[in-house]
Design goal:
The chain is an alpha+beta fold and 239 residues long. The protein has helices spanning 32-48, 54-59, 76-105, 111-147, 210-223, 227-235, and strands at 2-3, 10-11, 61-62, 68-75, 162-165, 168-174, 185-190, 193-198, 205-208. It folds into two domains: 2-50, no CATH class; 65-238, no CATH class. It has six helices and nine strands. The strands form three sheets. A four-stranded mixed β-sheet has the order 3-9-8-7. Strands 4-6-5 form a three-stranded antiparallel β-sheet. Strands 1-2 form a two-stranded antiparallel sheet. The protein is flat and about 65 Å long. Bound molecules: zinc ion (ZN) (2 copies). The site of one zinc ion has 8 residues, from loops.
């Protein structure tokens, strides 16, 4: 770990610039070109850490599955219905936009108006298209978790990994705080194992193996009969 000369925060040895305040932390004075290269290397290093690296996974401390929390997201039927509705509406919008674009292109009107309308339609087509693709991904992922027992998957952007049990979709998360810096942690997946990763420093990481979390989740879901109460509290339609 390096300590920033300016803000005194700790950061990774591989970085030249402090990720918190941006101050240069080189041992010697850098030339313009060296600075540029160092910045690029820093960027690459940070991107490489965006997913869990084999080396970090290997060094991760194993902890108990008690550190996980389970929350009902939605009944499975609703998740599927919502996904189908989103796919259908973005597909319809896409077709309509293409038709409008085609009609306007063949109209005998002011050139500038024509150009703006077509450009606008093109932009909306791109938005609808990406919505459609992401929703198809969600749909396929729901199908997949539905078919497997306790298969965890990151499907929803704002939620942690989810799994299906019975007729419901559940999210797993954690309340655990990082041992090193007391920051909150979040859940990530790698090779079927669950990792708790510190929100501040991705090298602060612990691991819960598949066998452990499956036992824990099964236990939690069969002993606990309070799921209906949670449902009533409005955990539905959480996304
Ligand atoms: Zn700094
Ligand atoms: Zn930490």
């Amino acid at each position: 770990m390096k300590v920033c000369k300016k803000c005194q925060k700790e950061f990774n040895d591989n970085l030249t610039f402090c990720p918190f305040c941006g101050a240069e932390n080189a041992d010697k004075k850098l030339t313009y070109f060296e600075k540029k290269t160092a910045k690029e290397q820093d960027k690459e290093f940070i991107i490489s850490k965006a997913s869990i690296q084999d080396e970090d996974a290997k060094n991760a401390k194993e902890i108990s599955a008690d550190n996980l929390t389970v929350k009902l997201v939605t009944p499975l039927k609703k998740a599927k219905l919502l996904s189908i509705l989103k796919i259908a509406s973005s597909a319809i919008a896409l077709v309509m936009l293409l038709v409008i674009g085609f009609l306007v292109a063949n109209m005998d009107i002011n050139k500038n108006i024509k150009l703006f309308t077509i450009m606008g339609a093109f932009l909306l087509v791109a938005v609808c298209g990406s919505l459609l693709i992401s929703e198809i991904y969600v749909m396929l992922a729901i199908k997949k978790i539905e078919s497997e027992d306790f298969s965890l998957r990151k499907i929803y952007y704002m939620l942690g990994p989810v799994f299906c049990y019975g007729n419901n979709v559940y999210e797993i998360n954690t309340n655990m705080q990082c041992d090193d810096c007391n920051e909150k942690m979040h859940v990530e997946l790698k090779d079927d194992d669950v990792y708790l990763v510190c929100n501040k420093n991705r090298e602060h990481i612990c691991k819960i193996t598949k066998d452990n979390y499956i036992l824990y989740l099964k236990d939690k879901l069969s002993i606990n009969n309070n799921w209906d109460i949670i449902k009533l509290r409005g955990a539905l339609w959480n996304f």
